[in-house]
Amino acid sequence: MALFQQLPFFNPTVPFNRPIHGGLLEGIIVTVCGRVSPHSSRFQVDLMHGSDIVLHFNPRYEGGSEYVVHNTCHYGHWGSEERKYETPFPRAQTFALQILVTQETYKISTNGKPFFEYKHRMPFSHVDSICIGGMVELSLVAFQYPAPHYAAPPGCFMVPYKRIFCGGVHPGKIFIIQGFFNPGGNRMEISLRHKTGIAFHCSVCFDENVVECNSYEDGKWENGEKSQVALLKREEPMQVTIFSSCDHYKVFVNGEQTHTYSHRFTKLEEIDVLEVSGDVELTFVQP
């Protein structure tokens, strides 16, 4: 199975240890979303080759000092640490970590903002698994091979949110939307658009706990498809993930699959706009 066809992992238990089918290639993005435990002392995300740790990403919360350690462990011997004295992931808060593999470095982004670049000490092509451990809760681990001209997502997620992306939609494409319902808010809407219509529209209704999916073509809405979702809570973060396969979209809300929606607009390469609107405050978006 090719890496970009691999389904994401939702709400996996920690410690998490999975092979990476096909290994790492230049341009692949590893996405890890979760929540740091309130009393966490540390957690780590490791890209592995056998027992070697090719990339060690290790936020620490010890002795009143909060920082992140980056390192490599080869044949049981650690290299020199590269530390950044900043905490991108405060305790008890949700986070989104992205690792973009480039020819020279791993470009690490946290909550949509560039955080660190780590130069390769071992070939990234050797990586064959990912391990995550420590005091952290996971909501999503995903792998994506993006289209050319990938650009890191902006750090500002104002609503209504609109983002043009290159390369269209392809099998393995993942969209991640994280945020909170505003006080008294009731609805969030997500649209994947092309020049003349909306290929996929997803509406999450708070009061009714319903997700409705539809398409807008030739100036009119088609027949919608509704499904129930587990109880949503305004005081808790919400994560909507849309995963595109060859013939349908899979919709997950807080890790629960709510819908499988067959492609009605099949020219996926022409879809190039992501929009998010409604009664929400966004904390992270991956187009």
TrEMBL record:
Keyword annotations of the record: Lectin, Repeat
Boundaries of every Galectin domain copy: 16-144, 161-287
CDD domains: GLECT (cd00070)
Keyword Cell division in annotation: no
Recorded GO MF terms: carbohydrate binding
Entry annotated with the keyword Repeat: yes
The organism's place on the tree of life at top rank: Eukaryota
Pfam assignment, any one: Gal-bind_lectin
Name recorded for this polypeptide: Galectin
Organism name: Cyprinus carpio (Common carp)
Organism taxonomic ancestry: Eukaryota, Metazoa, Chordata, Craniata, Vertebrata
